[in-house]
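Posting this for the archive.
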Amino acid sequence: MAPENVNEEVDSRRWWPAAAGGLLAIGGFVVGQWSAAVDSIPHDVAAEDITAEQMEAALDHVIRVPRAFERSQELIRLLERLTPENLDGALRVVAETRELWDPVDLQMLASAWTGMDPIGAANETQTWTPEYRRDIAFRLVIREWAAGDRQLEAVDYVQTLTDEHLYALAAGPLVRGWALSGDPDYALEMAKRLWDSRSRLDVVDGYCRGLVQTEGPEALLELLRGLDPALEGPFEQRLARVGMMILATHRPEASGMLLSEFLPEGEDEERQVLFSPVVPRVTASWQEKEFVAPADWLVTLPPIRVRNSALAGLLRDWRLMAPEEMEQWLDASSLEATLKAGLRRALARHEAAADSS
């Protein structure tokens, strides 16, 4: 099963350039001796005149730049001049310096390559090692391919994949890319077809993220509001669950209200298991804005374990920020006396552990 949330990887290095010897600020950008290899390719030289050897030398130098912001500037500038004639030089650098490439570097190369030759990029990146490099690059290629003006080619390519793992990697980015192209309705139909044909769950995540990125969270909210709370089919169940989790990042209060409609009061354990992961996601996002409203919302949910644990976590954070307000809320809440007592004991244990550390 593909992961429920396929998040984009980001470079964790600090990007603000250090005040080191040899750096010279020009036009608001920081340029130093490390850019000499890039500057060895004059700006007035047409991209088609840059040889594979020149590209190799320049890229080998740029990929060794330690600072992410500086490296990204030069990498973009260089990859804008990538052509079929000098591509081999770039690929030699990828093969020989694999340990130096951060995820964002791989994504920039894959994006530039896809715009030039998507079939070649897809064929090559699916063979890369180690797996994390392959996965990052291959998924990006499929997404960018589908987001451009050659969507049908991307669909045909994915449908011909015989490797189940590669198909699973490609399905979600394919749907997301189609949504990014400006056609979310067809992207939803594609997600349904891919789900029905080969059960790749990650297509739902890709669709929801693409919809939010192109149409905004309100479009996802409207889609979820149109679902029947009975949720007859597994695709609809998955769409509701994943959609609410993604919506929680942007509109936690709206996601919470929707969840209240889908989470049953009775003993439907299967439904409770299905939507339990949404509860902490909504709570964590909502309490970044305020504490009272999400706490009041949690009280209205069925008294399942995940509700109680989310409430305990919220109260711990609230107590750090406004202890008197938290105590007043807890005293006045409609929670059962035994649950209130349990929450107070949990708060006391947490405070004692914090004091002893």
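DSSP finds 20 helices and two strands in the chain. The longest strand covers residues 23-26.
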